[in-house]
């Protein structure tokens, strides 16, 4: 028993007893400490008033040991605020209001009277926490008075104590300013309302000589800028000059304070980058200061240099368009700083020996060369943010300068810069120059230079495929083969890694010419090396060869598979998990390559060994095994069924979640994630558990998709296992990913049942309809309680997929009407959220000076999510139209009204056009009553500057072209589409513009084939179409166009053969290019392309040879043999 800590008559606190309790809680004796913890918990439960006021008394006892007082302050902070973010009651909520007021008054007295700065700040932490509870706008549980929230005495005291003109104690001023900073988010309105007092406090603090006080004011300014509206913090722009001067002073005096200020400035750059606009424009500050610090290698801590680099990078990311337009000197400064950091690698013999012997997945790899890794990350982010147009001049100049220096570190930096930025290079000439520089260094005398050159070759192969492979394979492949024997195993392993990247995107006809040499080399290395990285990369390289040459790998299969089995049996060591995982990966890829018949006997052993593998939650084998199992299933299809009884129980069991109460300390704990359960209660779950659940749902999706009707007997238990995920009230980003996957798996279950019914000859078993109605009931009920755009998007996407997979005849007219009305309501709700967000933004900027108004860099991620949600709802409406076009006609007037309304606002035009596309696509001629509403907008948008508008506009023409009623509009459609398709090609980085061009080309082809006779004489559609072949950026349109083209060739269509067959060579070149590329060409089209080339006379192919690249020629030769 704790005894009574307070006298019931006098409420006197037993300070001595609580002091002893605190000492016991800090005891180094486990039993004593555990007993004290038990007593503390009992006191919190039975005597909340006593324990809180008692802790206050101990904290205020000047004669007590400082450590005891500080510990008391820490515990008191927990008692007065919610440390459990689960929302459970904390001690303050169970105290009498009179005692809460005593506690609040006592805290302010202690804070003002305390002379020891560190202790005063601890008390300030308690005050800030109590303020959170006492001033909470929506929860009365922590209020000091029964009916009124707030703490009227707090701000006047803090303002008075923060003012250096009223408080001569500089330590007290600093503590008070820091407390005021903590109160800004809680008392935002009150702090902003006291503008005159606040301005005086800041002005006096900055004008003083005490550096600690000035730092506290610096941090206060940053906090205000980060928390309040622009119009409220705008006057603080005037302090930028003083803040810059303080940075210069701190760089000479106090590293810790400088680090704290830099962290605050980076936060401001992240949330309110416009704060720096004026200072940057007038003096390029604080960018100049940041760059100066980054370049000081020996006199400044690496952590400080890293923070300065982070500020420069963050500003590039937040204001790239403004920098390009108004401050072009900024990006080169940031890039030069990155290059300086890239130069800094350890260069002693001991460091080199450690690097050579270390595996790239071992501890120490990330810790070594800290500044180099900072530079790697920085230069990547900068170039990505500002674009190669803004970065290229400085970047290429620095790469050239560094590469020409004698020091190996300089060359290493230049190669690393290429590796980090080659993704963003647009011009093929620049790619070639980079390739030459890399290949010139793969035989450098220093192993780290060779390693980085090879690493960059691999990255170049990833980012510039297939152009790099097609242009450079004759140089690169022999070189990589040679470097696999590098005297340093780590470099040899990187040569193999580069081969993996290069080979994955090498056409199979080209790979076939190299496969034998590489297989001999890789098998030899695998059999003779003891180096784990060389073993791992040898296995992955073999898998790549198998994946590329497919059936032709059969000649190597019988030699490789036994080696992999033996390796799996022997690789049991703690550090061999990745090696074992890669062996599973290779086995599954070999199976896909050679096919089911040859792989089936080995598949049994592969799956058996996967299931025997003891996996810890964070074991890297888990991802390898998951993906290997998916490949085996993809290979075996329905024959995978025999493994399900052994695999599914474990998968279903993984959906059971064990939770723990969450608290404040979990915010920075990567091991756990927080999620909402029940009625708003927050709990924590191990992140690895949610990753396991995600893997399990993804496995189910693959099994059902690949096995189709063969999965039928497992539909019911799978649905039962998934059902809790559909109706769950839990929320959290990782859990929502699991649920989003579960929605798609449910749709696949419906498709599986339909496939099984078809095989069995049953038109409708009723199970698919039951699954659909269950999903609609649970998903829509959940959606009606949700306002998160992303989770709503995943749910409505699931609705559309389930409806589409269930097919026609399931939902009646009334159900269709209700579902459509529900979809439109979700769109209305989304628009309301967007409107509220826009109003809030507008109000926040109202009254701010012009330079703080929104500019081209201001983007609203929330609005993007709402746009995506609304478009997904329209796609789901299309699924409803697809399965019930007749029943949907009753909804056509509502669709017309919506389209008309949305077209009135520019920002909603895309949504209106996509709804129009769905009507044409599924209702065909019956959509024509709506054409007068949206067709004029279609034609206006065909040539709009925004590619997001051009995409649905072109798609609408594509869909309408075959319909008779489109004849009148066809000539103008030809003119407008020709203008787009014959225009300049988008740049590599303009992803959506490339998609829009593919759609315009597809639409022009649809018009030319369906309405060719209506084409105006001045338009040459086939010439323009052929110019854009093959399509590659919109894969769905590409597959349709390429199949349509091969059909036209087989039909000897007049457009194909016009001008004496002038287009035929280029069309055949395109068909050869996409042949056997499943992303761009269907299997049916592959067969037709094969027939076309086999039927063509050899002499015709010889005449057309000039149209074919080396790769295409080899593919054609392969087809003919």
From TrEMBL:
<dbReference type="InterPro" id="IPR034085">
    <property type="entry name" value="TOG"/>
</dbReference>
<keyword id="KW-0813">Transport</keyword>
<dbReference type="GO" id="GO:0005634">
    <property type="term" value="C:nucleus"/>
</dbReference>
<dbReference type="InterPro" id="IPR011989">
    <property type="entry name" value="ARM-like"/>
</dbReference>
<keyword id="KW-0963">Cytoplasm</keyword>
<dbReference type="GO" id="GO:0006606">
    <property type="term" value="P:protein import into nucleus"/>
</dbReference>
<dbReference type="Pfam" id="PF25574">
    <property type="entry name" value="TPR_IMB1"/>
</dbReference>
<dbReference type="Pfam" id="PF18829">
    <property type="entry name" value="Importin_rep_6"/>
</dbReference>
<keyword id="KW-0677">Repeat</keyword>
<dbReference type="Pfam" id="PF18808">
    <property type="entry name" value="Importin_rep_4"/>
</dbReference>
<keyword id="KW-0653">Protein transport</keyword>
<feature type="domain" description="TOG">
    <location>
        <begin position="377"/>
        <end position="638"/>
    </location>
</feature>
<dbReference type="InterPro" id="IPR057672">
    <property type="entry name" value="TPR_IPO4/5"/>
</dbReference>
<dbReference type="Pfam" id="PF25780">
    <property type="entry name" value="TPR_IPO5"/>
</dbReference>
<feature type="compositionally biased region" description="Acidic residues">
    <location>
        <begin position="853"/>
        <end position="866"/>
    </location>
</feature>
<dbReference type="InterPro" id="IPR016024">
    <property type="entry name" value="ARM-type_fold"/>
</dbReference>
<feature type="region of interest" description="Disordered">
    <location>
        <begin position="837"/>
        <end position="866"/>
    </location>
</feature>
<dbReference type="InterPro" id="IPR041389">
    <property type="entry name" value="Importin_rep_6"/>
</dbReference>
<dbReference type="InterPro" id="IPR040122">
    <property type="entry name" value="Importin_beta"/>
</dbReference>
<protein>
    <recommendedName>
        <fullName>TOG domain-containing protein</fullName>
    </recommendedName>
</protein>
<dbReference type="InterPro" id="IPR058584">
    <property type="entry name" value="IMB1_TNPO1-like_TPR"/>
</dbReference>
<dbReference type="InterPro" id="IPR041653">
    <property type="entry name" value="Importin_rep_4"/>
</dbReference>
<dbReference type="GO" id="GO:0005737">
    <property type="term" value="C:cytoplasm"/>
</dbReference>
<keyword id="KW-0539">Nucleus</keyword>
């Amino acid at each position: 028993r704790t005894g009574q800590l307070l006298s019931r008559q006098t409420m006197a606190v037993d300070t001595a007893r609580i002091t002893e309790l605190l000492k016991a809680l800090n005891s180094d004796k486990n039993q004593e400490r555990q007993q004290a913890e038990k007593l503390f918990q009992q006191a919190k439960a039975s005597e909340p008033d006593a324990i809180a006021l008692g802790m206050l008394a101990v904290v205020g006892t000047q004669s007590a040991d400082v450590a005891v007082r500080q510990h008391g302050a820490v515990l008191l902070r927990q008692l007065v605020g919610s440390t459990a973010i689960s929302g459970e009651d904390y001690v303050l909520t169970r105290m009498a209001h009179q005692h809460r007021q005593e506690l609040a008054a006592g805290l302010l007295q202690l804070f003002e009277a305390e002379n020891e700065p560190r202790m005063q700040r601890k008390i300030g932490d308690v005050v800030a926490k109590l303020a959170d509870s006492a001033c909470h706008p929506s929860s009365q549980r922590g209020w000091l008075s029964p009916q009124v929230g707030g703490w009227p005495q707090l701000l006047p005291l803090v303002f008075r104590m923060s003012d250096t003109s009223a408080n001569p104690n500089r330590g007290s001023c600093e503590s008070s300013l820091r407390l005021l900073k903590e109160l800004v988010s809680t008392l935002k309105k009150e702090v902003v309302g006291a503008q005159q007092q606040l301005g005086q406090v800041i002005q006096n603090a900055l004008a003083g000589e005490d550096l600690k006080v000035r730092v506290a004011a610096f941090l206060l300014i940053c906090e205000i800028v980060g928390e309040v509206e622009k119009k409220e913090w705008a006057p603080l722009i005037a302090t930028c000059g003083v803040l810059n001067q303080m940075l210069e002073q701190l760089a000479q005096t106090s590293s810790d304070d400088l680090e704290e200020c830099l962290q605050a400035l980076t936060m401001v750059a992240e949330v309110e980058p416009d704060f720096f606009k004026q200072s940057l424009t007038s003096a390029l500050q604080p960018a100049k200061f940041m760059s100066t610090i980054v370049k000081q290698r020996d006199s400044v801590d690496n952590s400080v240099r890293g923070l300065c680099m982070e500020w420069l990078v963050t500003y590039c990311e937040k204001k790239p368009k403004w920098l390009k337009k108004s401050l072009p000197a900024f990006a080169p400064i940031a890039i030069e700083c990155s290059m300086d950091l890239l130069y800094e690698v350890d260069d002693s013999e001991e460091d080199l020996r450690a690097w050579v012997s270390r595996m790239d997945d071992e501890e120490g790899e990330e810790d070594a060369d800290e500044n180099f890794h900072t530079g790697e990350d920085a230069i990547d982010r900068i170039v990505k943010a500002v674009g190669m147009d803004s970065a290229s001049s400085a970047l290429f100049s620095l790469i050239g300068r560094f590469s020409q220096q004698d020091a190996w570190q300089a060359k290493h930096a230049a190669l690393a810069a290429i590796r980090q930025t080659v993704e963003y290079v647009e011009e093929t000439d620049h790619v070639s120059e980079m390739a030459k520089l890399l290949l010139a260094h793969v035989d450098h005398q220093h192993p780290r230079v060779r390693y980085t050159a090879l690493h960059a070759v691999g990255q170049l192969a990833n980012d510039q495929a297939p152009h790099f492979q097609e242009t450079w394979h004759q140089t690169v492949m022999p070189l990589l083969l040679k470097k696999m024997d590098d005297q340093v195993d780590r470099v040899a392993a990187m040569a193999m890694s580069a081969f993996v990247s290069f080979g994955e995107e090498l056409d199979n006809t080209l790979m076939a010419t190299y496969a034998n040499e590489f297989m001999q080399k890789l098998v030899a290395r695998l059999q003779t090396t003891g180096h784990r990285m060389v073993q791992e990369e040898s296995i992955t390289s073999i898998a790549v060869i198998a994946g590329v040459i497919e059936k032709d790998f059969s000649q190597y299969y019988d030699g490789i598979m036994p080696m992999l089995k033996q390796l799996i049996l022997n690789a049991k060591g703690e550090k061999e998990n990745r090696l074992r995982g890669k062996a599973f990966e290779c086995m599954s890829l070999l199976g896909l390559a050679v096919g089911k018949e040859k792989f089936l006997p080995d598949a049994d052993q592969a799956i058996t060994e996967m299931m025997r593998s003891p996996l810890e939650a964070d074991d890297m084998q888990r991802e390898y095994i998951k993906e290997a199992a998916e490949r085996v299933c993809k290979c075996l299809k329905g024959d995978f069924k025999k493994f399900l009884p052994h695999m599914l129980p474990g998968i279903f069991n993984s959906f059971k979640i064990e939770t723990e109460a969450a608290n404040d300390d979990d915010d920075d704990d990567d091991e756990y994630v927080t999620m909402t359960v029940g009625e708003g209660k927050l709990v924590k779950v191990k992140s690895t558990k949610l990753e396991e659940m995600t893997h399990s749902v993804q496995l189910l999706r693959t099994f059902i998709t690949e096995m189709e009707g063969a999965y039928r007997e497992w539909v019911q238990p799978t649905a039962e296992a998934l059902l809790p995920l559909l109706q769950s009230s839990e929320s959290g980003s990782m859990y929502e990913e699991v649920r989003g996957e579960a929605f798609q798996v449910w749709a696949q279950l419906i498709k599986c049942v339909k496939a099984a019914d078809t095989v069995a000859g049953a038109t409708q078993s009723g199970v698919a309809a039951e699954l659909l109605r269950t999903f609609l009931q649970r998903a829509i009920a959940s959606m009606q309680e949700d306002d998160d755009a992303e989770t709503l998007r995943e749910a409505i996407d699931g609705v559309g997929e389930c409806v589409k997979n269930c097919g026609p005849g399931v939902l009646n007219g009334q159900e269709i009407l209700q579902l459509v009305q529900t979809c439109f309501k979700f769109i209305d709700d989304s628009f309301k959220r967007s409107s509220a967000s826009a109003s809030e933004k507008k109000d926040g900027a109202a009254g701010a000076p012009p330079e703080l108004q929104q500019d081209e860099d201001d983007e609203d991620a929330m609005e993007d999510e709402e746009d995506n949600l609304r478009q997904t709802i329209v796609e789901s409406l299309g699924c409803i139209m697809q399965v019930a076009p007749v029943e949907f006609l009753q909804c056509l007037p509502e669709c017309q009204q919506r389209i008309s309304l949305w077209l009135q606002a520019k920002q909603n035009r895309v949504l209106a056009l996509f709804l129009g596309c769905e009507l044409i696509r599924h209702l065909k001629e019956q959509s024509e009553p709506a054409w007068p509403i949206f067709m004029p907008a279609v034609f206006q948008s065909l040539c709009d500057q925004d590619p997001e508008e051009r995409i649905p506009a072109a798609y609408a023409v594509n869909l309408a072209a075959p319909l008779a009623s489109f004849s009148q509009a066809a000539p103008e459609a030809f003119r407008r589409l020709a203008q787009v398709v014959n225009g300049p090609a988008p740049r590599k980085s303009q992803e959506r513009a490339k998609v829009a061009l593919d759609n315009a080309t597809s639409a022009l082809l649809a018009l030319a084939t369906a309405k060719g006779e209506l084409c105006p004489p001045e338009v040459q559609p086939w010439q323009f179409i052929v110019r854009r072949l093959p399509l590659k950026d919109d894969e769905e349109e590409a597959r349709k166009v390429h199949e349509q083209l091969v059909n036209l060739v087989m039909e000897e269509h007049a457009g194909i053969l016009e001008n004496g067959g002038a287009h035929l060579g280029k069309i055949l070149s395109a068909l050869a290019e996409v042949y056997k590329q499943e992303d761009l060409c269907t299997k049916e089209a592959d067969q037709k392309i094969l027939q076309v080339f086999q039927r063509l006379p050899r002499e015709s192919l010889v005449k057309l040879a000039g149209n074919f690249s080396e790769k295409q020629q080899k593919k054609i030769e392969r087809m003919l043999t």
